[in-house]
Design brief:
Layout lengths: L20 H12 L6 E5 L6 H15 L4 E7 L11 H11 L7 H13 L3 H5 L7 H13 L14 H22 L3 E7 L6 H15 L4 E7 L1 H11 L7 H8 L2 E4 L10 H9 L20 H16 L7 H13 L1 H7 L4 H12 L1 E2 L5 E3 L2 E2 L11 H10 L7 H16 L4
Parallel strand pairs: 1-4, 1-5, 2-3, 3-4
Antiparallel strand pairs: 6-7, 7-8
Helix pairs in contact: 1-2, 3-4, 4-6, 4-7, 8-9, 9-10, 11-12, 12-13, 13-14, 13-17
Length: about 425
């Protein structure tokens, strides 16, 4: 196997430092359960390992020899330009069509009609081999003659016959694929939905809610639920619609990617050590236990910068300081850039906002450093305050602290950070 980049999702259990395999196994068992709902959610913010978990699900399922499920992975972001995100689902089903008997072309045409019916011309062109250009022209003429040029998904309730027709066609297509493969259920793993445009994201969810939820088919969405809920809220702005409540109706069962629930869990340091090739030992006492800091992708990126720093001819500085400054950048890039400077006076002036004592004139002072204006909400951000005071727990003004941070920042700029 080629050496994997630290920035890439893991692809196998031997890379699974965080023990996500147990959650993967739980989800597979749920997918095999007769009571499994037809839509599941895997929720986590950016960099928490959603794609890695989907990879582990596919690997564990493949190794199990279980033929009761067939799993189709779809990266929604790759199809963002198609105009409608359920097109790749149909394409996936069509890839099975050549092996099917009898020919299911009519069902594919009906589902394709629904795509076009929603005003997605470009989508039909992706259905190569299933619908001819003549069919497309005929469908387009039918739509134009009906006076319908584009129908929003909210209008589907007005066209119940078309919805039912689409459900029947899609169900027959899925049933035939399952029967041919001798499987009981087709599982669609939909990744990166939260990276797509709000319109396409909500459109796919509503497509599934309205006419793609059928027996024999389960949809698994890996996404940042807060981002998608904000898309829903934006679409229905001015109404009483709550994005999270709406999402719960579409996705009734969820699995959340939490991070290191045990207080003294050393897996986070195993992850960092692995990303640096085991070359560095960090001081756990200086490591801030903040969920947004302990996102795996941020940790690996920061560990990569730590290794890169000491691989070059950079200023001599404590490895903890280099790592923590890089982690500060990957978590709060705006604050990092506000702090980053070649001036001791500037760095000390920024830190004085967090370590300084109140003066009679209303300002703060930290040793010889007068607090500089921060702007934004940085001075009131409790996570940043906790990060700095944990990473650099010396409250008395110490010129060496500022000098150490300056040397780390100077070296990090040389390897590409601001």
């Amino acid at each position: 196997m080629a050496e994997q980049s630290i920035h890439d999702p893991i692809v196998s259990e031997d890379q699974d430092i965080l023990d996500r395999r147990y959650l993967a196994e739980r989800i597979i068992n749920r997918l095999n359960d007769e009571t499994c709902p037809q839509v599941l959610g895997i929720y986590g913010s950016w960099g928490t390992g959603k794609t890695s978990l989907l990879n582990l699900i596919q690997e564990k399922w493949g190794k199990s020899g279980d033929q009761s499920l067939q799993i189709e992975y779809v990266d929604a972001w790759h199809y963002e330009g198609s105009g409608n995100l359920f097109v790749p689902i149909i394409v996936r089903m069509m890839s099975k069509r050549a092996a099917l008997n009898p020919d299911l072309g009519e069902y594919i045409k009906r589902v394709s009609f629904s795509v076009l019916y929603m005003g997605t011309d470009i989508a039909l062109r992706a259905l190569t081999g299933g619908v001819s250009l003549g069919d497309a022209k005929m469908y387009q003429e039918d739509i134009e003659s009906s006076g319908i040029t584009k129908v929003s998904l909210l209008d589907w309730e007005k066209f119940t016959d078309k919805v039912e027709e689409t459900q029947i066609a899609f169900r027959k297509l899925v049933d035939a694929v399952n029967q041919k493969s001798a499987t009981k259920r087709t599982i669609f793993l939909i990744d990166n939905l939260d990276r797509c445009s709000p319109e396409n994201t909500v459109g796919l969810l509503e497509s599934i809610k309205n006419f793609l939820i059928i027996p024999g088919c389960v949809w698994v969405f890996a996404m940042d639920a807060e981002v998608v809920a904000s898309y829903i809220k934006r679409k229905y702005e001015g109404t009483a619609m709550d994005g999270n409540s709406y999402l719960d109706k579409i996705i009734p069962e969820q699995y959340h990617l939490s991070f290191f629930p045990e207080e003294n869990d050393h897996r986070v340091f195993d992850l960092i050590s692995n990303a640096t090739g085991g070359s560095f030992t960090l001081d756990e006492g200086r490591f801030p236990q903040i969920p947004r800091v302990m996102v795996p992708r941020r940790l690996k990126k920061s560990a990569g910068k730590l290794a890169e720093y000491f691989a070059g001819n950079m200023p001599n500085v404590d490895s903890n300081t280099v790592f923590l400054m890089s982690l500060l950048y990957h978590t709060w890039p705006d604050f990092y850039e506000r702090l980053s400077s070649s001036s001791l006076k500037h760095i000390g002036g920024i830190l004085a906002n967090f370590y300084g004592k109140d003066q009679p004139d209303g300002t703060k002072k930290w040793g010889d450093f007068n607090a500089l204006s921060l702007g934004g909400d940085f001075a009131g951000d409790k996570d940043i305050i906790y990060f700095l005071q944990t990473a650099f727990p010396r409250y008395d003004a110490d010129a060496e602290i500022v000098s150490e941070i300056k040397r780390a920042l100077d070296g990090l700029r040389q390897i590409g950070l601001p």
